[in-house]
Structure formats: C-alpha cells, structure tokens
Specification:
The protein is of the alpha/beta class. It is about 55% helix and about 10% strand. Residues about 1-10 have low confidence and may be disordered. Bound molecules: adenosine-5'-diphosphate and magnesium ion.
Length: about 600
C-alpha cells in the first residue's frame, strides 16, 4: 500500500517546491496590492470610478458573508440556510443605530455583530440534537421568521419599504471602500487563525466525529456553539456593511434567493478551505459584471454555474487544486521509531492504592441481547489490564459503558475512586481516553494535525488568544507541536507528519489513532483491538507504549485478540463471555483456568494460543 502510494507521489524539483511554498504568499501580496490600489486604478482608467469601486466593495461584503457560511458549513458542518436572515438583522441594526438613534455607523456594526451572534446562538441552542438535514430545515424556518418579522414589525423595521438613508456618516465613498476591504482582511485573518489553532482543530474534530472528539475530551456542544455564534456575528457584520453600501435595508435582503450567490461562491471556490470563499466570490462577481447587459439571466447562469461546479469540480477550485498532484502534500517516508514518550504529555502518576478505573455490576442489555450482564472490573494504576473473550462477548460494550458512551442499565463506574461523570467528554476530561474498535481518523487533515487535535484538552487558550495569536497561544502551540513531533517519532511516524492521515496504511492509521489518544494526556488509555492489521514493528511500538504507561504509574486497558501480544504486555486479564466475567487474574493463571478453556473450546485457534 505504501509502495503504491510512493509511486503516486509527485516527484518535485527544488524549484517547484520553492515555487509552491511561496505561491500563496505571492498571490496574497498581489491581491492585497490590487485591492489597495483599486480606487487609484479606476480613477485613472475610468470615467465611472465609483461604479467600479462599488463592485469591488460589494464583492468584499459578499466575501465576508461567504467566509461566515464557510465557518458554519465548511468547518463546523452546520448547514445554515439563515445567513441572509442574519444579514438582514445586521442591516436593521446599523439602520436603527444610524438613522433612528443618530449614532455613528461603527456602533451599528458592533450591534449587528452582537445580534448576529445572539440569533445564531438561539437557533443552535434549540436544535442541538438535530441531524444535518433537520438542522438545515430549522435554520430555513428561522430565516423565514426573520424576514416575515421584518415585514410585519413596521414600527421598528419600516415594514416592506424598510429603512432608507442608511449611510456611513462622515466617510467618503472611497473611504468606505477601504473600510470594506479592511473588514474583509480582518475577517479572513480571524478565520485563518482560528482554523489553524487548537480551537479550529476541535471544531473540525467534532464535525468529523462527535464521538471521537468526546473521547479526546473535546466538548461537542460548546465547540459547535462557539463556531456558529462567531459565524453569526460575522454574518451580522456583513449585513451592516451591506446596508451602509446600499443606503437602505428592507426584508428583501433576507430572502433565501439572495443566498444563492453565497452558496455558489462557496462551492465554486471550495468549501472548507481558507481562500475558497474569497476566490469563489471573486469569480462570481466577475461573471455577474461581464453579463450585466443580460442581467435577467443572472440567476439562471448562477444556477447553471453551481450545477456545473458540483459536477466537474465538486471540491471547488481550491479543493481540486489541493487534491491534484501539485497541490497535495507530498507523501512522507517510513522512519525508525526513536526516543521515548515525552514526559510532559503524561499526567502525574495516580494513587497506586486506588483502582484507576473501576466498573461495579455493569449491566447493558440491547432488547433481548444481554451484551453486558453484571461485569465487575478493576483496573489497577500502573498496570496493563487485558480484556479478552470471543467475538460478541461484550468487550466493546463494557468499555463503552465504562466511558459513558452507552448509558448503563445499572452499575457504577469509578475513576480513581470517585464516581464517574455521565458525559463521555467529561470522562475524558477526568483522564480516561478511549480508542474505538472502528477507526475514526480525521482523514482530510495531516498526520500532525491529527495528533494536535488530541492535544486540545490540555491546551488552555481560548478564541481571543487564538485569533490574536497572543503569547499564551504561541507558547502553547509551540509546545504542542514539539510534543506531537516526539510522539510521532516514538511511533515511527515522523517521516509522515505532513501527509494526509487518509493516505496512511491501515496499520499506521491504527497507530496514529493511539498516538492521538496519548496526546490528550490520559491516565487510563483504553485500546479496543489496536493491533488488528499492524505489522510487527508497529506492534513493537504499541508494546513499548503500553509499558511506558505502566512504568509511569498510569494504566492501559487492552482489548485484544492477538494472544502473543496480550500475554507479553498484560499484568492482569479479565475474560468475558456472553456478557459475564468468567475469569480474572494474572495471565499465567487465567490461561490455565478450566472455565476459560471451556469458553474457548469453540475457537480451537484461540485454545492453541492460550496453551
Ligand atoms: P465484542 O466487543 O466483545 O466483540 P460487543 O460488545 O461489540 O462484543 O457486542 C456484544 C453484543 O452486543 C453482541 O451480541 C452485539 O451484537 C450486541 N450489540 C453491541 N452493540 C449493540 C447495539 N448498539 N445495539 C444492539 N446490539 C448491540
Ligand atoms: Mg468489540
């Protein structure tokens, strides 16, 4: 597998690599220079400068909204049909502030952001349990409500005609142009800094798999709320600028039809990419300008563009470039495992006299299936505790009960002698981290970013530090990267840290998942059949990892079928059959236990391993 991946990897000359590395910077510099010089350019070449300035200002405002849409849909995976409604709310905010209250326009922008955040927060909080499509429908309903409230509440919104005379008092057209460009720049940097920080990695982890995120101690609800309200604030901001640019606001601004251009722009440019929204909006603004003599076909053409884009380049311009041979990160190479587990990742040892993790009388039935039927298990600190048993005997269900991914019918769970909290992320926060039997890697992110996502629980910076890149963020980020590099070296994956996780071999993916879990700094690491599909060198790395944990006074729970591996690393074994514990003790004793041999009689292969 890795051999074929290698032949696919683009062979790049050093000139090519250099060009690729500097390409984004070069393009950014050119784009910024053109935008800054634009009013001078139009002034020099055109009798109609303010028209052309207005086009770019409007595109910048659209790009701000599209970035907001990208933050919700692209990064947080929240299908939002209410972005035009949020724009409308932002428009009312600035109209009310400037026209009715006679206050400066920038205060209107602040109010627009606050209202955008509040509205999106409200909508998210009533639809937390909704799946993707239902969430989309709820936002659609919210959009209708916002528009119709605008129509009906004449005293505040001016009804159908809306509010006129909205203007950035004291600013010339050209000055306002620079305001829109500056806001676009700031919003772009906010998006970039956030996405590339631990906050963004948490958001993407929740989008990929809320369960995996929870197992790493990331709070799904809080994380979604954070990103969606921030996106809402930015949508409100865009709406306020839109009203200032137009000179009025009315409910038509909020109707869903007007959202078409943002959706087309986002999908055309590349959803879930940083520059995609800006590029998409630029392309559309250009097209709309070129066909302005046939304006009544604009919607038709945009519709066709979206359809064609979805068919030909479903990943959008940026996404397609990234997936291409030139744009893709080069495949790495296998490296020898080196170094030990970084001490800074491991938490302080736990009290050796109290079990690190304990389940008492756990019962979990699925209808008539007694998956777990009164299991007692006690995992000592400073040990590797194996759980073995035939397929379907209830091992994974036991672990899911211990970590609260399943609600038990009865029984207690104790972590270091104290009752376990009842949410999976809270269990992870208390230091019990689980790696699932079915792999859940963040396939579209680099190997390094996967490990960094695991670090999020121990990173103590929030959104402001991430956006402003304060020292608090920079120090922690440097530490995280250093620790992640050490972990990857330990697992023999350092040569592959920049490649996409999805392009690893099966064994490497399993190992990476374990490394990511270790990155969260667990006191109890639960591995569900980690050695399946691993080559001997990878099993070696796993063995060293388990021993490092034990020697550090921490605990590993190991569900495994590979008996060689189990016998080599486990200090204690619990054997489960049909949801019940049939034996428990040191491996040597368990292996001779008649009940165990009996349970394994149906599996002669395993009996051979046992004896
Ligand atoms: P093991 O990990 O030991 O192979 P599991 O804990 O996955 O076994 O499963 C134990 C039993 O519970 C099996 O009979 C399985 O079919 C059943 N089971 C597991 N999860 C569910 C579920 N979510 N719904 C219904 N039955 C389940
Ligand atoms: Mg299982």
């Amino acid at each position: 597998m890795s051999a074929s991946a290698k032949t696919e990897a683009p062979a790049r000359t050093s000139v090519q690599s250099l060009a690729l590395r500097w390409l984004p910077t070069a393009l950014t510099v050119v784009a910024v220079a053109v935008l800054v010089a634009w009013p001078s350019i139009t002034n020099f070449y055109s009798y109609n400068a303010s028209y052309y300035n207005g086009i770019v200002a409007s595109a910048a405002i659209s790009a701000v909204l599209t970035i907001s849409l990208n933050m919700s849909m692209g990064y947080a995976g929240l299908l939002s049909m209410m972005h035009t409604g949020l724009q409308l709310v932002g428009g009312y905010a600035v109209a009310y502030t400037t026209v009715n209250a006679g206050l400066p326009w920038y205060l209107g922008m602040v109010l627009a952001m606050a209202l955008g955040a509040v509205f999106s927060g409200l909508v998210l909080s009533i639809s937390l349990r909704a799946t993707y499509l239902y969430f989309g429908m709820i936002t659609l309903a919210a959009n209708l409500i916002m528009v119709e409230t605008g129509n009906a509440w004449e005293a505040v919104t001016g009804g159908v005609t809306g509010i006129v005379g909205v203007a950035p008092g004291g600013l010339s057209k050209v000055q306002f142009y620079y305001v829109t460009i500056a806001v676009l720049g700031i919003v772009y940097i906010i998006q970039r800094n956030l996405v590339r920080s631990g906050v963004g990695r948490a958001v993407m982890a929740v989008k990929e798999s809320p369960d995996t995120a929870s197992a790493l101690g990331i709070r799904p609800t809080r994380t979604k709320m954070l990103m969606f309200t921030l996106a809402g604030a930015i949508a409100g901001l865009s709406g306020s600028m839109y009203a200032l640019q137009l000179g009025f606001i009315n409910p038509d601004v909020g109707i869903l039809d007007n959202g078409l251009v943002f959706f087309v722009g986002l999908f055309l440019g590349g959803i879930g990419t940083l520059v995609g929204p800006v590029i998409g909006v630029t392309v559309i603004a250009t097209v709309v300008e070129l066909i302005k003599d046939h304006a009544r076909y604009t919607t038709l053409i945009l519709g066709c563009t979206l359809l064609l884009a979805m068919m030909i380049i479903p990943k959008g311009i940026v996404g397609t470039w990234r997936a291409s041979k030139l744009g893709r990160p080069a495949e790495g190479e296998d490296t020898e495992p080196t170094g030990g587990l970084p001490e800074s990742v491991l938490p302080g040892a736990v009290d050796p006299d109290v079990p690190a993790l304990e389940g008492r009388g756990l019962v979990k039935h699925f209808g008539g299936v007694k998956a777990v039927d009164g299991v007692d298990i006690s995992v000592a600190a400073g040990s590797v505790h194996g759980i073995i048993g035939p397929n379907g005997s209830g091992k994974s269900t036991t672990v899911a009960s211990l970590t609260r991914f399943l609600k038990v019918d009865s029984g207690e769970v104790l972590i270091c002698g104290e009752p376990a909290p009842d949410k999976p992320f809270a269990v992870a926060e208390r230091g019990v981290t689980r790696v699932f039997q079915v792999p859940h890697l963040f396939a579209q992110q680099s190997v390094m970013d996967n490990v960094l996502a695991g670090m999020r629980r121990r990173e103590r910076y929030g959104v402001p530090s991430a956006i402003l890149r304060l020292p608090r963020y920079r120090d922690r980020d440097a530490t995280s990267r250093e620790e992640a590099a050490q972990l990857l070296a330990f697992a023999g994956l350092s040569g592959r840290s920049e490649q996409l996780a999805g392009s690893l071999s099966h064994g490497q993916k399993r190992l990476l998942e374990v490394v990511r879990a270790v990155a969260s700094g667990p006191r109890v690491l639960i591995l569900d059949e980690p050695a399946t599909g691993l080559v001997p060198a990878e099993i070696d790395a796993l063995t060293r990892l388990c021993r490092a944990f034990r020697d550090h006074g921490l605990a590993v729970v190991l569900i495994e079928h590979n008996m060689d591996f189990v016998m080599k690393v486990c200090d204690e074994l619990t054997v489960i059959d049909s949801g019940k514990v049939i034996a428990c003790g040191p491996p040597a004793e368990v292996r001779a236990d008649p009940a165990v041999l009996e349970a394994y009689l149906g599996r002669p292969d395993l009996v051979e391993d046992l004896s």
